[in-house]
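Discussion board: Methods & Data

I've been asked by a reviewer to show the raw model output for two of the constructs in my manuscript, not just the figures. I'm not sure how much to include, so I'm pasting the format here to get opinions. Each protein appears as its amino acid sequence followed by a line of discrete structure tokens. Is this the kind of thing reviewers expect to see in a supplement, or should I convert it first? Here is construct A:
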Amino acid sequence: MRIGFVLLILTTLVSFSNTSRVSFGLRNDYDVRLGGEGDEVQIKADIKLRDHGARPTYTVATRPTTVYRPRSQVSFQSARRRSLQHSQNEKVEWDEVEVLGPEIEDRHTLAQLARMTGNAYAMPGRKNWYDIDNEWNTSFPIGWDPDSPGFRGHVFVSPDASIAILSIKGTTITGPTSKLDKFNDNLLFSCCCARVDISWVFSTVCGCYRCGWKCDSSCLSDAIAQDSLFYSVGVDLINNLTSMYPDADIWLVGHSLGGALASLLGTTFGFPAVAFESPGERMAASRLHLPIPDSDSTSSIPWHAPVTHVYHTADPIAQGACTGPLSACAQAGYALETRCHLGGSVVFDSVSKLGWRVDILKHTVKEVVGMLEREGIEWDEHGREVPPRKAEDECIDCYKWEFDKFDHLDQAASSESSCK
């Protein structure tokens, strides 16, 4: 099944500081096909050299980034399954690796990554395709078969296979992916199977509710392991990308649900990830039983260092404030109740600095790109163009709920709960 082309060139220009520049232009034509059976994703690329005439280039700032990376994905997934199925710990060996990652303190770079993220929602030539530069008008699409209902995005790869950037699509309200988008949203970001209270008007996504404010934690983990298909597809996809480009530095970017997936996959593989306006995915990582390095590591870089969340204060979804039966999210059938993020967060105070009102309409990529491209805004008292990255250390999700191993009734795949 033929799914697209990518045309770009990448050259790294090293400066005398820790920051480098990655220049993108036009060189190779990648003829990409996606195939495979079941959960197996296979990608094949035929590279055809094009003429090397003079073309404009565009630069994105990069910097050396230290990450924790599991030494073996086999052992990582084995440890995850043992924790999920038997509540037992299994040792995972970690390597501390220095890679070339995005310069998150550069506003221009964040704006370009946001535009790239926006392009995960579109195909080249469509009106909603973001014009980053002429060389970015075609790309390497994933999952864009007209009949495909699931995981979508684009991959940008250098001709020398030194950097590959996976941009993951977030939620769309209508279209072929909307049903599974909503299912993944409600499974990953709700406290208990998208059950808010007795006024909730749509069916839940699993049967883990146990009366009152009780929720079966074992049931929740089973539900995510069985049904959160987008994470599983992402794991298979990245395994294939790393096989295709074994020496590449891989970056993950995404918006909303796509940003959460970028974060979860970045944590899984130890790849730098930038997530824009993502709901809190820390609880989803716990329910997925993602192994993490020892908390007493002597490294100055925390285990979740590759993940950077970028969001602003006028977006209720990223802040976990679009909740309750009267909220716009609930009215549309979404239970986006979590607010705690992995890694560090760069939070732009758009309410104070730009006078924006808190509104779900401010959640869109368009608003994020517009905010990041505004000139002359000092986002903190030190005059920075980008606020400092901070960990959300004291954040708590779903504090009203009691999560425990109650009477596990093997209802994870059902929308029916044992208590109405």
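Construct B, same format:
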Amino acid sequence: MRWLASSRPLRRSVARPRSIATYSTQRGNPLRILFCGSDEFSCHSLKALHKKHKDDPSLIESIDVLVRPSKPTGRGLKQVTEVPIASVARELGLPLSTLPHDTFTNWFMKKYINLIIAVSFGRFVPPRLLNQAEYGGLNVHPSLLPDLRGPAPLHYALLNRYTHTGVSIQTLSPHSFDTGTVLSQTPLPGIPIPPNSTLTSLTSLLAPLGASMLVSSLSSGFHLPPHKDVSWQPPYPIRHAPKVRTVARQIPWLTPSISTLSTNLPSSAPHLEDIAHQHHILGPLWSKLVVRTPKKEQNKRVVCDDISYILDLTSPDLPPAVANEVASALERCKEDPWAEEQVPVLEWLQIGDDEQQVPEWYPPQPESLEMFERVVALERGDISSVDAAAGVEGVQQQPKRKKEWRLSIQTAYFPDSETGSIYLRDPIRGGKGLLRIGKMTVDGKPTRPAANVAAQLGRTVTDYRGMHFDEEPIGKALQPATRRPEEDAEVDEETKRRSNRAMVRRIYSY
């Protein structure tokens, strides 16, 4: 009964010093829990706590549920989706409240609550609430803390190709996320991650385990002070699992993948395979396509779906017609790297923010390097906008702008008329693999086969130097594109004409 529960604060042992063991059992006073959750992972913990509440009321006396407000989703943000745990709380008949304005400001907890449990909640529980609760707070975190601290441990465990993972039960720190005392943890080396796991499958694997560990920790009295830290210390610098933002779903044509960026570790997989793996974990990826017409240039946002990696030309997943076409192009490039061919290409635009460095190994064309240096000088205020075109130093200071870089790269594509897919080679690193893209969505319009989009937005170029499919390191693979062939003893007019042709790779800085 709610009215009976509300009278509990009068009987609580608030005045008892926490350091004195005055409890009747090692489990302490019956728990009156405020459960903060949101997704499917937290639903398992709530169901397990409710079952324990029914089986053992002396341990868990009551459970109140707090959720974050529903947010608009979908195209145009027209659909309002409720968090999954709200419906679970109603099914279980538990008191349910919503955090107003998605913040704890001016929100007050019921006085009879003596333990806060937050599982995949996404909001920091303030110290005023933790101090009000007799036993503070607990959290179920799907990682082997302190490794992969942050709101997206499952994402980064998969993106980084972890072989093992686990679950940790920790206290809620009043200072920052995921820095509390680890009370219980999956024994090392952890739980093996099955091959080809997805977020859904890994959640289904760890959520029941986390729920069981939470109930077991409460039954064992781990929430009672003093708390004992049982966490391990990784032999490498602690890695973090920050929120997966929109920029993380951008296709990294020229820069390391999100997994490499998050851990500062080199990826052993081919670059195109990293992109396919990124799609496997995060879903549809986006990029920008540069569409050129005689009158103007447009940048269209393209969402790519149905992405996979083809190991080599002998793969059974590669249509024979496409394999023959790629092999033929490879032979032509080997015979004459300067051959003039009409090649269908897509020009992609990768955007980086001020927190991402321009790849140091990216070799701009000689004619673009001068322009790049001028733009950088213009940003620093070294030259004026009027003198920039002439390359004359000036004194006019330019207004500061948000640092952003853009790299443009063209990739030859090979369409498959039967499936509507397109196949791309790695434009920088070469190698044997191919990236298959099955579907594309341009500027929010209906999804179409990638081959149809490429035929409409792609174009053909002559003397496409990026057609080099060398399997050598980047320096050698790009040598014909950055300087004349070594066998050319003289710099004749034809060589100059070819070397000064429209840039295949261009670099911008805005």
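Answer (T.O., handling editor elsewhere):
This is acceptable in a supplement if you add a one-line summary per construct. For B, something like: The chain is about 25% helix and 20% strand.
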